[in-house]
Amino acid sequence: MYRSWSRICTGVKRRRKVIQTQVSRIQGMVEVFSASTSGSLRIDRLDFSYFSTPVLRSLSCQFGSSRTVLLGPNGAGKSTLFGVLSGALAARSGAVLLPGADSPTSRRELRSRVGIMPQSIAPVPGLTVAEQVAYAGWLAGLSARRAARRAGDALEQVDLAGKADAKAGRLSGGQLRRVGLAQAIVAEPEVLLLDEPTAGLDPAQRLRFRSVLRSIPGDRVTIVSTHQIDDISELYDVVAVIEAGQMRFTGTPQEFLGLAGPGPGQAERAYLSLLRSEEIAL
Questions:
Q1: Scanning 113, 159, 173, 266, which has its CA 20 to 30 A from the CA of 34?
Q2: What residues does the ABC transporter domain cover (predicted)?
Q3: Other CB atoms closer than 10 Å to residue 95's CB: what's the count?
């Protein structure tokens, strides 16, 4: 009887030691995860539908303080994701946590702490470039005086200070895109979203815009949605691919390109290898 009880006690002690070791490992993993995500934009199981059509499907991912390019076919959910992240759209379920947040961020907070450059930039009739940018700052929660001051700084950053007093409606397409970028950064957001920023620009205008983008400090979460994948290694730190409302890939440009063998069209081949849609074909 004593021997049986002794064996049981010894077994319990060993089991307890194993459990304690496992708990310590789990705690360590949690601490590492918390430390690594504290400065990240976190997206947790987002669902969004337009009427009965699902667009985002339990989407979970995170973006650190870096420049991320978001790739995906038309209808993949890129613009919808940006709408939810900026507070313009309400997800059916799930949560968005801004850098440093321990609980889900409200739509009101998202609208003031996330800057977005939409696909279409419309000049406001009667306003100068500086006034249009300042107005965007005021909408984001800045006082009128601070918005006016920050508008000047933002226009300097996008190389449009010389157009501050011009009417926005008289600018070229490339200049108007830079006004949109100034509007997105005027309130110094923690997260910057650029939706197809070079759409409709000619090659010279695209090069100019890329140069401006490089000049913007990279100490915030910046996500750029685009179909232009020929310059991912030069501009971006992270590549993310979304399709059918789900994230198919996140990794470095080198990891992304490694999905395809070397040779012509490497980026395009890597991108197509990730898509599951039957409509995508070479």
A1: 113
A2: 41-269
A3: 15
